[in-house]
Specification:
7 strands; about 50% helix; Rossmann fold; seven-stranded mixed β-sheet; about 260 residues; alpha/beta
């Protein structure tokens, strides 16, 4: 999924359990200024499921690195949403250690180790295990697709339908379950050894909108993002009209922050 033209490229990494098609509106905005590439991780949409028996953070980083290495470019910006945030951070640190840091990194409401308790507590581990077991049966019964469409409310067509379809196959559900089973371990890895992003500009975006039910969790996540921004000396931006799905509700903001790193 590529759009735009030029020697600079913006690569988009999706969150857990969702097709890269949901980046469609962001891609449309970025393509006015740079080449932009989104992709389906192994197991989503038309991408072949991974032969690996597990989908941990290093493995997902390997996938992203293969995509990046297929793109000849002068400057690279990595953009990661949700669980895509840790993935792009891992790759950015790898590239930097190899002497080729990206031009910048944008973390869009990322899964953050500064709120590790939200991911590694016994309750969250139980919830993740239950969710992982439910997803493939829901896909087989064709109940996952309407749930995905509801989640993506506000995303224009044709991207909403494309993303829901690509995220709700049995293969996609199995892939999401495999990825989900490694989130707690990935967060622990990030907490123990945070990727070194000192050699590149970083922008951290947080969703600032919450409901009555999730306002405490949202406040905890925003505080974690602010701490990450402070730790890596990043630009911090609060997306006031968005909750977690900033690429859907404020695609122009995500695009603007990515393009700004190429100026």
């Amino acid at each position: 999924m590529s759009a735009g033209a030029g020697d600079d490229v913006v690569v988009l990494e999706a969150g857990l359990g969702i097709s890269g098609q949901y980046w469609g509106a962001v891609q449309q905005h970025v393509a006015r200024s740079a080449r932009v590439v989104g992709y389906e991780r192994a197991g989503y949409g038309a991408s072949t499921p991974s032969p690996a028996p597990y989908r941990d953070l290093p493995g997902l980083t390997d996938d992203l690195q293969a995509v990046v290495e297929s793109q000849a470019c002068r400057r690279l910006v990595l953009v990661g949403h949700s669980w895509g945030g840790p993935i792009v951070r891992m790759l950015a640190a790898r590239l930097s250690a190899a002497g080729a840091p990206p031009a910048g990194v944008v973390l869009v409401d990322q899964s953050d180790e500064h709120a590790a308790d939200l991911y590694i507590s016994a309750l969250m581990r139980w919830s993740s295990t239950a969710q992982a077991k439910l997803m493939p049966p829901l896909a087989r019964m064709r109940l996952l697709r309407p749930l995905m469409r509801s989640t993506l409310t506000g995303l224009p067509e044709p991207w909403r339908t494309a993303a829901a379809d690509a995220s709700s196959t049995v293969a996609a559900a199995r892939t999401a379950a495999a990825e989900l089973s490694h989130v707690a371990g990935g967060i622990q890895q990030l907490r123990d050894a945070p990727p070194d992003l000192r050699d590149m500009p970083v922008t951290v975006l947080s969703g600032g909108r919450s409901s009555f039910a999730d306002r405490r969790m949202r406040a905890r996540i925003v505080a974690a993002h602010r701490e990450t921004a402070r730790t890596v000396d990043a630009r911090y931006v609060l997306a006031r009209r968005s909750g977690h799905l900033i690429p859907v509700s404020e695609p122009e903001l995500v695009a603007a922050e990515a393009v700004a790193l190429l100026r």
